[in-house]
Specification:
Belongs to the TRAFAC class myosin-kinesin ATPase superfamily. Kinesin family. KIN-7 subfamily. Pfam families: DUF3490, Kinesin. InterPro entries: Kinesin-like_fam, Kinesin_motor_CS, Kinesin_motor_dom, Kinesin_motor_dom_sf, NACK_C, P-loop_NTPase. It comes from Tetracentron sinense. The chain is built from 33 helices and 22 strands. By secondary structure, it is an alpha+beta fold. The chain has three domains: 320 residues, Kinesin (3-Layer(aba) Sandwich); 271 residues; 188 residues, no CATH class. The strands form six sheets. Strands 1, 3, 7, 8, 9, 10, 13, 16, 17, 18 and 20 form an eleven-stranded mixed beta sheet that branches. Strands 4-5-6 form a three-stranded antiparallel beta sheet, covered by helices on one side. Strands 2-19 form a two-stranded antiparallel ribbon. Helix 18 packs across helix 22. The two termini are 91 Å apart. The structure holds adenosine-5'-triphosphate. Adenosine-5'-triphosphate binds next to helix 3 and strand 15.
Amino acid sequence: MTVRTPGTPASKIDRTPVSTPGGPKVREEKIVVTVRLRPLSNREQSVRDQVAWECIDDHTIVLKPPPQERSIQPASYTFDKVFGPACLTEMVYEEGVKNVALSALMGINATIFAYGQTSSGKTFTMRGITEKAVNDIYKHIVNNPERDFTLKISGLEIYNENVRDLLNSDSDRNLKLLDDPEKGTVVEKLVEETATNDQHLRHLISICEAQRQVGETALNDNSSRSHQIIRLTIESTLRENSGCVRSFVASLNFVDLAGSERTSLTHADGARLREGCHINLSLMTLTTVIRKLSVGKRSGHIPYRDSKLTRILQHSLGGNARTAIICTLSPAMSHVEQSRNTLSFATRAKEVTNSAQVNMVVSDKQLVKHLQKEVARLEAELRTPDPSAHSGSDTSSKEKDLKIQQMEMEIEELKRQRDLAQYQVEELRRKMQEDQQGLNPFESPRPVVKCLSFSGPLSPKLDRKDLARGDRTRNTMGRQTMRQSSTAPFMLMHEIRKLEQLQEQLGDEANRALEVLQKEVACHRLGNQDAAETIARLQSEIREMCAKQSIAKEVKVGDVVAVNRTVSTNLKEEITRLHSQGSTIAGLEEQLENVQKSIDMLVLSLPSNNQQPTAELTPKTKTQSKKKMLPLASSNSVNQNFMISPCSPRKVFESEVENRAPESDDIVSCEILQESEKGTPTKSEEGTPCYQRSSSVNMRKMQKMFQNAAEENVRSIRAYVTELKERVAKLQYQKQLLVCQVLELEANEAAGYNLENDDDVSELQEPPVSWHVTFRNQRQQIIELWDVCHVSIIHRTQFYLLFKGDAADQIYMEVELRRLTWLQQHLAELGNASPAHQGDEPSISLSSSIRALKREREFLAKRLITRLPAEEREALYIKWEVPLEGKQRKLQFVNKLWTDPHDAKHVQESAEVVAKLVGFCEGGNVSKEMFELNFVLPADKRPWILGWKPISNLLHL
Ligand SMILES: Nc1ncnc2c1ncn2[C@@H]1O[C@H](COP(=O)(O)OP(=O)(O)OP(=O)(O)O)[C@@H](O)[C@H]1O
């Protein structure tokens, strides 16, 4: 049989908090500490020992040394209760521990300790307390007939650190303590007897006491030489018919400790001395545990395991139990020091907090009983269908229906999810097939990744400002390129062809956009001959461009593979051809830029931009506005279609033909409309046909509608052109990337790598790295290269804020990295030599980069005043450690930005500051379009942006 520790009184425990309405779930409670001062013993009286202590009230005990004992300082101690020599044990029980002891009847573990020096009255007190508690327990049982109570008792003593069973007189052996993950510490094979009644219980208790080790010392004829623990386990359940299967279960421990003793006073030797040592040692551990617990449970390690006593009583010390300690004192002057120690222990114990809970248990036996009853009831119900039970079955059938409905819905949902998943798989498969066929490299970055991106880790970290390391990076990149598939050169050419097809497509789209715009202008009848002419000119240029491209198109993609034996020659030819075509893309960009300008002009001329509110219009302005407005409305149908699919002008035009009436008809219909609204034709100042204005409300409404439609049309075209521009920029980027790769291949070839015999490539191949990791590595490398190459910090900020690891950013990251690597190499080769001139622009050099960066920092320093309020500036100076009294603080501050590429926080904060100064973050809309990737010449040329231009010049793009 196994006794359970107080924290785990039963095998299947479902602990629920102490039911204190409105109170905390776990009852946190300090240990109840009382002091009992016994009368002077006969022995003490016989040696004329004097009384040193006095209980001055119910809570305070004071040390009052007699006048002749001048060396002893008076002292006062306060506790939950103090009991003087005249107090009976009953009072100690009633007022000191009863509450705690009887908690066990409600499922709360409880422990009552007696602590004190030898012969101070512990055993005397605990015997009385145990007796009183047993009385009360049985009184409670009698008073609560609705509950079934089971009382079990076990008794053990810890003698010389051995655990002995006090109910098993045959067993003299040391019982083992076992650690159970669920129950805590358990004493193996400890006898547990079930008490049949109070008499039986008392008898069992008396057996325990009789078994206990007692010996005579100089201070006590019957000195307890061991710590005794009598444990009552009380389990109570509501009686059978209640159907309740949960029980309260708790342990009530009566702990009579052996007394601390001084060998000098007990005159112990031999066995007594050995006992005394063990007693003192385990009490010392108890004191340490209490001391540590008194300063808080989280005060580090609590040495419960240092003695068997503290191990067994762990739950009573700061755990799941209510605990009361009675500290017993001898009043004798001769024991003042020992009594002081006891009071000091008591004072510590007052500060220890326990967390008691109600222990509920579901016993297997009860559960089986309950289930058997339930089964019997259901069987009976089935046998005799009772009409009253019918309504019940109706309810349950309704519940079933409801459940079935619910399940059907769940099945439907699951089916839907399955179909969706199947569809997604199909989509994925289709896309993969498309990718393999290389249908459209723009739609997804995947083909680029497959053919162009690095698969291995990037080059090692660059040392700051170490241009000489360019070689290493270059070689690493070269090797990385080499690690790509041996078909890389063919794939490159394949990619180039695909890009060209795309470029052609873009040209087509731009042309269509222009056509739409031209029609819009024609309909507009702005009289803006210039705009119409410009657009016509642009159209013819684009047509010309398309014609040029068709010659190049004659080389089919498939042909590339056919000529794979002369890879190097082909690549060189490709480069030459690309160089010759470089201006085409630039031209396309420029043309689109012009289209946008034309649109801007249109926007400026729209009624909304120069029209006053109708009520305030002068007759002249009214005439003008009407003149502009009506034809625009007539073309509305075209542009509504255009708005639906701005990226697919082919569709737009098809529907345009179907839906749109001739322009002249539109005008006529407008005229008719106005005529019918009793307007009179008139002439404008310019003498162009004009339409009668209507003063009616309907006419005003119509005007408003037309105006809105016109604005919408222009906005749509504008958005479309912007998108085209972005796509052209992307195309440019991809082309650059290809050129970079071709250059690298050439360089590698020149360096002796055998492109066509790449047998050991597989050996070099490294496991694929996830895009996220690659992105982080690439970004870090880019940041370091920016620093090394003194790249514009505005550019750095733009790039840093724009590309944050999106899958679609791969190509941009690679191009940036390649450009920078190229630039680093170029700068290293050039050193500080005077740069050669490329056309009108001087080629970039290290010193020119540094100068440009310096100018940029000066510009940003000036912006500090206009962009940031004084308080924010001051805060930044403090944060960035710019001396408050220093000169040129603005420049000092800006000079600190973007200076440490290895500090991620510094980089982030630098980017944030620069973004604020330049105004990137305003409105929170940082878009890729906004940056235009620096391939389109910025309208607002700043010296720092020019820093990039020579790179493209050097690449002849
Ligand atoms: N409150 C009291 N009133 C009268 N007599 C008392 C009281 N307390 C203790 N005594 C007597 O004092 C003597 C010693 O008491 P007791 O054996 O209980 O001390 P103890 O602390 O258990 O000692 P030990 O640690 O050596 O076992 C006993 O003879 C006991 O009857």
